[in-house]
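Hey all, quick one. A colleague (J.T.) asked me to put the 1,3-dihydroxyacetonephosphate job into the tracker so the inputs and the structure tokens live in one place instead of scattered across chat threads. No bug as far as I know, just bookkeeping. Sequence used:
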Amino acid sequence: MKLGMSKQNNMRNKIVAGNWKMNLGISDSIELVQKIIFDKHKDSQRVIIAPPLTNLYRLGQLLDLNNSKIELAAQNFYFPKAGPFTGEVSAEMLLEIGVNIVIIGHSERRTYFFEDDQVLFRKAQSALAHGLEIIYCIGETLAERKAETHLDKVKSQLDDLMIKIDKKHWASNSIILAYEPVWAIGTGVTASKQQAQEMHYFIRKLLKETIGSKISQNISILYGGSIKSSNALEIFEQPDVDGGLVGGASLDASSFNSIIESARKTDKR
Ligand code: 13P
């Protein structure tokens, strides 16, 4: 066995998620969605898109109408049930419009909106309690990588989630993890396949030690940070990488389709 590789060959399906961030109005969103090529009847992988909040309802209708298997995720929500929280939407509001997945912990939320591990943990807890699936993002800064504290940083971001979240949510695969090194997001600098594999293996090992072997083998861990059509395949081929959370390249249909194709080629089932 090569160092830094999971022992068993996993059966996890590949997931490609497009995080559109604060890009594309309704008509551009519709145009892009119509160009995404994904036929789940042939492929066992999952394709998820996370458009801006204002587009979710309309895109949900469109995907339903076309019987599409592309899934919708929200980029954010707030954990209380309802109340005086100007600008926020709740889990129930997302579920009401057919959105069952939410991204939590993205580095842009951590940096620009000051969401810390405590708030993010509460968001995770609430989303899961409401039956949402979560894509929980973690990752170190460049300074942390240079100081070789990247493994500690990621462990600290995962500690509460691993220890305090009810095991049933892990067991039901309601948690997808996304390793997104901050230095790779939007920079054009992608983690090397070795760096990605090393961190994904480390995360899976933590899951194994903290929650259990079976669950650790079933949890999907996506890589995010400057994924492009030119590098997706080599990253997705890594044994502990289960797909990608794609930013910029998910806004271009041909790039996104090519990334979906790379995921299909490396899908285990
Ligand atoms: P880029 O693919 O643009 O680097 O963004 C990654 C990301 O932040 C996805 O959530």
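Adding what we noticed when we looked at it: Residues 5-9 have pLDDT under 50 and may be disordered. The pocket of 1,3-dihydroxyacetonephosphate is lined by residues 19, 106, 180, 185-186, 224-227, 245-249 (CB under 6 Å).
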